[in-house]
Design goal:
- With 167 residues, the chain is α+β, with helices and mostly antiparallel strands.
- It has one domain.
- Strands 1, 2, 3 and 4 form a 4-stranded mixed beta sheet that branches.
- A hairpin with a 5-residue loop joins strand 3 and strand 4.
- Helix 3 packs across helix 4.
- The longest helix has 24 residues.
- The chain is flat, with a radius of gyration of 18 Å.
């Protein structure tokens, strides 16, 4: 049974040939700066969350140290673009830390693996963060660095469109 990763679903929906080259044949591609930026910010937020679960509160100093250690210049053709993206990464981390400071929810887990079968296909992936609200409800968070935040209604509308269920 083939395994379909959630990140590949959008690629397949947009362009099945691109999906085949990237996910099936695994044809190497040139590094892209937005992947570098998104990947490093995602990794650092994951690390900060894991440390918080272990009892170490996140700080901007720790986040900046981690950014210096994890940052790679490979995808950048110019120092100016790299400096702009690194500054943007710092701003994203500051935004995350400010949000996290105000967040009253309890962190239950980070990078939690999931798997299920849908239409005879195995779907696997990771949930970025799971929280429990003060009232006992659970919230699943998926970090995105390249998309504007979506409301519950927008998310439902997008899912309906993808599933061709819109009336």
């Amino acid at each position: 049974m083939p395994v379909v990763k959630p990140a590949g679903l959008q690629t397949y929906s947009d362009c099945p040939a691109q999906y085949k080259f990237g996910y099936v044949l695994r044809v190497p591609t040139t590094p892209r700066t937005y992947f570098q930026l998104g990947s490093v910010v995602h990794e650092l937020i994951e690390r900060l969350t894991t440390q918080e679960l272990e009892g170490t509160p996140p700080t901007i100093e720790r986040a900046n140290e981690m950014l210096e250690h994890c940052w790679s210049s490979k995808a950048y053709a110019s120092r100016q673009k790299e400096a702009e993206d690194k500054k943007l990464a710092q701003q994203m981390l500051e935004t995350y830390l400010a949000w996290n400071e105000r967040n009253e929810n309890e962190i239950i887990g980070a990078e939690m693996k999931f798997a299920f079968t849908l239409n005879d296909r195995s779907v696997t992936g990771f949930i970025d963060r799971v929280e429990r609200t003060p009232s006992g409800e659970y919230i699943v968070l998926d970090y995105k660095t390249g998309y504007p935040a979506e409301s519950r209604n927008t998310i439902k509308q997008n899912i309906r469109k993808k599933m061709n269920c819109e009336s």
